[in-house]
Amino acid sequence: MVTAERVWEALAEIPDPEIPVISLVELGVVRDVAVENGTVRVGFTPTFLGCPALEVMRDAMAERIRALGAEPEINVCLDDSWSTDRITPQGREKLRASGFAPPAPRGTSAPTLVQLKSNVHRCPYCGSTDTRLENIFGPTPCRSLRHCATCRQPFEQFKTI
User: Fold this and answer.
1) 72: which of 13, 65, 105, 161 fits an S-S bond (Cβ 3.0–4.6 Å)?
2) What's the CA gap between 96 and 73, in Å, rounded?
3) Are 42 and 75 in contact (CB under 8 A)?
4) Distance set, CA 51 to CA 47, 62, 99 (Å)
5) C-alpha dihedral over 91, 93, 94, 100, to 10 degrees?
6) For 15-40, what is the mean pLDDT?
7) How far apart are CA 116 and CA 107, in angstroms?
8) pLDDT, greater one: 135 or 39
9) Whole-structure pTM over 0.70, yes or no?
10) What is the pLDDT of residues 49-79, one digit of tens each?
11) CB count, 10 Å around CB of 137?
């Protein structure tokens, strides 16, 4: 019998297509799961609406649900935007351990260029705050490129959104 708990466990095994060290559940894009009469409904909020991995994530979730013996219904939720606050503590640690600086907690207002250029971002390799912004535009809209002056390592910083 398919239960919500089994579905959550199955979805927690799906890696993010762009950053495979973190799962979709740890990334916080899976909002809710409901099981009813052999159908599993998943509420899913992508990191941003133009995410090129949207269909890949949706297909991976549907495939895992079918493997459990249920019919998937994956609903992209547009009523609330994704936020970096949805990344789980385990996900943040996995990001850090793999060389990504996790995002800072979101404040009450949107981040500003001054905040992004500040040295409050810790290097995921050595922990130093002696870092600088190299490029506000990283490989995806949610990341920027930084450099650590202490260990001289470049790294990606998740923007707080």
Assistant:
1) 65
2) 33
3) yes
4) 7, 18, 22
5) 100
6) 95
7) 13
8) 39
9) yes
10) 777 888 999 999 999 999 999 999 999 988 8
11) 9
CA gyration radius for the chain?
17
Q: State how far the Cα of 121 lies from the Cα of 102, in Å rounded to an integer.
A: 9
Tokens describing residue 34: 């409901």
- For residue 118, pLDDT beyond 60: no
- What residues form DSSP beta bridges with 66? none
Token pair for 99: 């060389």
SS (H, E, C) the chain: CCCHHHHHHHHCCCECCCCCCCEHHHHCCEEEEEEECCEEEEEECCCCCCCCCHHHHHHHHHHHHHHCCCEEEEEECCCCCCCHHHCCHHHHHHHHHCCEECCCCCCCCCCCHHHHHCCCCCCCCCCCCCEEEEECCCCCCCEEEEEECCCCCEEEEECCC
